[in-house]
Amino acid sequence: MANNRAGRAPARRLNWNDPDVRSVVYQVVALALVGLIGWFLVSNTLHNLSVRNIASGFGFLERESGFAIGESPITFGPENTYGRAVLVGVLNTLRVAVVGIVLATIIGTIIGIARLSKNWLVNKLATVYVEVVRNVPLLLQLFFWYAIITETLPGPRQALNPIPGVFISNRGVKIPTPTDHFAFDLAGIGFLLGIVLAVLVSRWAKKRQDATGQSFPVYRAGIALILGLPILGWLIGGAPLELNVPKLQGFNHVGGATLTPEFAALLAGLVIYTAGFIAEVVRSGIQAVSHGQTEAAAALGLRRNQILRLVVLPQALRIIIPPMTSQYLNLTKNSSLAVAIGYPDIVSIANTTLNQTGQAIEGILIIMAVYLTISISISIFMNWYNKHIALVER
Amino acid sequence: MKFLMTAAAAAVLVLAAPGAYAGATFDAVKAKGFVQCGVNGSVAGFSAPDSQGVWKGIDVDLCKAIAITMFGDASKLKYTPTTAQQRFTALQSGEVDVLVRNTTQTLTRDASLGLIGAGVNYYDGQGFMVKKSLGVKSAKELNGATVCVQPGTTTELNLADYFRANKMEFRPVVIEKLDEVVGAYAAGRCDVYTTDVSGLAATRATQLGNPDEHVILPEVISKEPLGPMVRQGDDQWLVVVRWALNAMIEAEELGVTSKNVDEMLKSDNPNIKRLLGVTPGMGKHLGVDEKWAYNIIKQVGNYGESFERNVGKESPLKLDRGVNALWTNGGLMYAWPVR
């Protein structure tokens, strides 16, 4: 077919021996094949569904769900739609993934550095940690943490009360929350303002140090800003003291905010498991920076932590980022094991939805679309960051 | 894992050749020589393997009756344990021939899943179980409770409906696997465990340390007619499943048991003669052996025997016949006439 076309067309431009022409033809054929297979799968599915009288389409998302969800960042009740239930699932997945990624990075980096410590005890402890958590299946670890929380902690009526207003039981950790007051809004604004100012201060300090060589206590100033401004906002708002304190009523504590056992167990499992892998990524990244760099920095008179912070880590980061990306993706995807311990993530909720409506294919498409979107977003961000910190060749 | 199996079953729907499914389960089952029966696998009294690995239960007995109807032999049967979430996909995709998995018959399931109910082998209702130490006497006192429940069931919907109707709040803890959800209840993660009353009785008798520490509250908040399901458009197979069940109920009504079935062959009662194939015709209509009902009763027993052995007084569950008694005794079990 390609030969015919090449024969009919002006011979000089479209020659089968021209590699460009060949590659275009191959690509068109490959694309057509993929399209054909896709079309076959979709039409075959629709045909099978209609032959078997199975409802199809996404119309069910508008219908009332009729089931309740244990925890949700937005209000949700049985009277809300399946669509909103799926949204709750997505938010719950994002919540555990974002918090998990931040914590796993911090813990993993600390342990990775500890693996290189000259202190025998610290070094060995880190090694044992890495070997144990990497070699026990994650699902088992989740069951372990969930069992620890639900089996060892007392019931709500005998809840531990370490600080006034905080209750720890097998129903989770209950903490007081600020009541709805203008002063707390001001404090929130102050917190955000503090972060922005701290970033600006650190930029200014770096510029000044580059220009004059004078250093500036950036960390102390930053902490003062981030902590000081919210307190200032709270004082300006009239320094209200009333909090929404949880209290025992009926079966459970009412009021305040809850950290549920399901969320806590899932987070602990994911963070501790992934931190083991991140530790190895960090360790190998640091070891990949040639020792000569460290010696040269030492010869310049930099202190040990300065060497790590200014010379070794920035170079190690370039090696660390790509494998780190896949650890972040792993953590996000592993969060789907939540279903085993009852955390209402997207898989759990989409599964319930697909079973209530009987529309399995749509439910699984939703799950795939959600994970694909989250994973690609993480990849895009990490690739951008990787480019951002890449060595600028001169 | 469970998710993978659901996904795999859904993939069958995506990939199956069009037309491979021609509504011919009856012929397909005849050809392969056994019945693939989708069961629960972990509810004692309905379908679960015992300590020797022998499948037992009222659902298992119905599976056997179907296999006997087809082949005259209860061993021509394979079981597929399914979770609440996989079960319909497993039947839709043809992984199992019939689903006998304490499944509630509802309009949505009958009309939108491409499946159809073939009768009722147990009339159930949803209830609540709490620890006796909580001192709760009625489901109306459960405002604010944390409730353990399995996902993807009518149970989850009834629960939300009941609390909404009574203007009460609750917090669900939704765990898929039965052992895990019962474990969470036993550990005190939840105040309440809810499922069908028969399931509560089975859990209390077999899965919780001391059955006396738990009480099933008196309220029954839903109707749960549990029964077998087959695929739509498969009428000859539907008829076999329906009449395997009806034969067991009819036998109890006629007083035919596994012990006296041989003597009953000499009975003058025309109903018994038709049922046992002494007067031929019924088996021919179904497309099976004339001795089909005789074989069911001989090998499995009638409905009453199956009930008492699996969930009734002779079992650890100790459930009353209640609404599952014959209609002649004030219950709902009413076989269509075998004629």
Class by SSE composition of chain B:
alpha/beta
Low-confidence sequence ranges of chain A: none
The CATH architecture of the largest domain in chain B can be named as 3-Layer(aba) Sandwich
- Strand numbers in spatial order across the main sheet of chain A: 1-2-7
The major beta sheet of chain B can be summarized as: 5 strands, mixed
Broad CATH class of the domain at 86-179 and 242-343 in chain A: Mainly Alpha
- In round numbers, the mean pLDDT of chain B is 89
Counted up, domains of chain B total: 2
Radius of gyration of chain B: 21 Å
Reported CATH architecture of the domain at 86-179 and 242-343 in chain A = Orthogonal Bundle
Identify low-pLDDT runs of chain B. Answer: 18-22
Give the helix proportion of chain B (percent range): 25-40%
Biggest sheet of chain B: strands side by side, in what order?
Answer: 10-9-11-8-12
Number of helices of chain A: 12
Write down the oligomeric state: heterodimer
Shape of chain B: globular
